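We now fix the convention by which a protein and its fold are recorded. The integers have meaning only within a learned vocabulary of local backbone shapes. The record below shows the convention in full.
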Amino acid sequence: MGVDNRTAFLHSKRMASHGELRLIGENYDPGFIGMMKEDDGYGSSDDFEGALGNDQDTADNGRPPKKKKKFHRHNPHQIHELESFFKECPHPDEKQRRELSRRLALESKQIKFWFQNRRTQMKTQLERHENVFLKQENDKLRAENDLLRQAIASAICNNCGVPAVPDEISYEPSHLMIENSRLKDELNRARALTNKFLGRHLSSSSANASPSPSQGLNSNVEVVVRRTGFCGLNNGSISLPMGFEFGHGATMPLMNPSFAYEMPYDKSALVDVALAAMDELIKMAQMGNPLWIKGFGDGMETLNLEEYKRTFSSFIGMKPSGFTTEATRETAMVPLRGLALVDTLMDANRWAEMFPCMISRAVTIDVLSSGKGVTRDNALQLMEAEFQVLSPLVPIRQIQFIRFCKQHSDSVWAIVDVSINLSNAANALMFANCRRLPSGCVIQDMDNKYSKVTWVEHSEYDESTVHHLFRPLLSSGFGFGAQRWIATLRRQYSSLAQLMSPDIHGEDINTVGKKSMLKLAQRMAYNFSAGIGASSVNKWDKLNVGNVGEDVRVMTRKNVNDPGEPLGIVLSAATSVWMPITQQTLFGFLRNERMRNQWDILSSGRPMQAMFSVAKGPGQGNCVSILRGAAVNGSDTNMLILQETWSDACGALIVYAPVDASSIRVVMNGGDSSHVALLPSGFAILPGVQTDGPSMQPDIDENTSDGCILTVGFQILVNSVPTAKLTVESVETVNHLLTCTVEKIKAALSVTQLGSVE
């Protein structure tokens, strides 16, 4: 009984301590045997008979205590021989001890005590490493327990919408039997009602029997465990919709995941993957050289792949054959509190709105754990997203992943994503062109109402699917890398701060009108991005026409009932070309309304002027404007142009759309912008990348001559009748407009070479 109590005490002591994530991956190294120093307790032998004298008795008798024998310090030769023998035989018998005593000139008791001490220390080392392992297992069990408690607490009946488990659950056998009986009665009543409405007779015997293929529930009604609950009856022939609305319904459309509604997967396995991914993210965010190599000057950090392979082991499988690795890290100060950023990243809709040019679609498929309170600690959810670069020459990356949030202290959070493969029919194309290794950000609250954000992006992708014009950009990390996420994050929060500012640039427009105008511009930019990347949100049909170049993507779709754009057949055409001028030069030319007549067919060759301008952040180019053409023969035109422009270190955007003057006046007075019909066109500019040295830098200033990549996109209504047939002449007209626009820009900037990077 004493042994059992001691064992239980040791086990409870081990399980009581919480291991930090840095313990994950530590393993016991048996090589410590024979590597101890002399002063570790194995270079000496205690004479326990002399050391364990009755000190108290001698003190009580008034006699001086016996003098303890001094420890005997073994020499290096003796220690080496004892260690060698211990490796072969940790429990020597009497004969072996006498032989060692004779050979090493030691007493037999010294040999005996040395081996006792050695075994004790070895046991202590083993227990210490066992504690580390038990702490890891304890963390996993606690996380899994939290997930189960969250699922039980949030279970909702699919029929009635009330909590499926209204009271605290008791796991006593008697209570479980009562609950089981209650559920059986409920199931029998459901069968009776079902067969009654189906016109069948249900006998008392069949009501108590288990359902067979010809009885009871059959295929019409089945009991299933749903994503949002643990009980409920659903008609097996009805598919339940699963939609997720954005915060502003008029800004972005409803999105549906590609998963089936019922998804079989091992939640405990996802917890293990999330913990391992979090551990890797923290280490990659904290470690420096040699894991991360920094370029010259203020060059970006790139991952040392050889050091990464030595430091980390893959837990999502081997790298697919033919895939290329891209990995970057960036740190910046962002003007917001950490918890606000955590809330944004853990909400799929707000996350997509924060990065509209990078995320064309995002949904939360399942919430495995909502986390602890407002801190979102231990929140874990299953997600699906489409990542894009604004060009028809770069395929969209559709990725299914888990997102895990962990609060490491009062002011530090970490959020990690990692691709998963659920191995079902809906996942046949999983990892088809990309998979995301542990990526995410570490967020630290600072004292000045700023947050320090360290972003890590790590992916593997099929480079053969990418046009050679964009391969240097993607391999350097400027397509999907950490720099682009950080630049977008800073720009968006600067825009938010500008929106909250009471200072308004522009005449005859109030704060409500400014917000309504920015909301309309947000929808315009989002629709432009969706048309360039061919997102699955908008059902585009790709066209293959003989006269259209291979670098031009032409798509079409029909608008039947969306009030946010003209009704009829919409044609989209986009292409990307190399421009041997800098990003800032090209951006300044395209956003200048006085030079617009040199390339824009809507200006009819007339100069244009800005009527209103709402700033969206620092810098003259970050704004939303209303443009108007010069009057012809003294008469004003009723057609205006809504335009949004922005530029940062990782790219630039110019998006515009013709709008009716009366409609825009309603918006500027604070009216609803969701019914303003518009079709966006515009330009996306990505920096050129120098790849002829160890440092890869974007070409965003005047001191480099590599150039930039210009993407041109048009969306045009070719027929106002949705049921009409698309003609080849319409496609050729839009393609001609695309080609002429590029040629006019080239001529205006005196660019004599347009092409692609070899």
